[in-house]
Amino acid sequence: MQSMSIDPAAADIGARVADNASQGLQAGATASTPLTSLLPAGADEVSAQAVAAFTAEAVQLLALNQAAQEELRRAGEAFADIARMYTDVDTAAATSLTGVGPLPGFRMAAG
């Protein structure tokens, strides 16, 4: 029978992925204003159209970045939650079988 446990480091990795995604969301929010508020280089029609096109592309890419970072954050949180659940179940099962809590040195999943 295959073991149904998970390395507690998975919770740390999940938390780091979620933190990185939060930083990515913040970076996107910071970049939003400079990317979407450009002024035309000149008063001509070509400059105005170039700024409009650049702004439209920037808005689309910022939205794509936000969706990707939110998905990464959710995935990281899910990894951390799953690792925590495995550790809780393993601990409860060990306690019910042995009558004692986790052994010294047992790594608990952090959250």
UniProtKB/TrEMBL annotation:
Domain PE, chain residue ranges per copy: 4-92
One Pfam family matching this protein: PE
Coiled coil: none
Top-rank lineage group of the source organism: Bacteria
Family matches, as Gene3D superfamilies: HP0062-like domain (1.10.287.850)
InterPro entries: PE-PGRS_N, PPE_sf
Protein name: PE family immunomodulator PE35
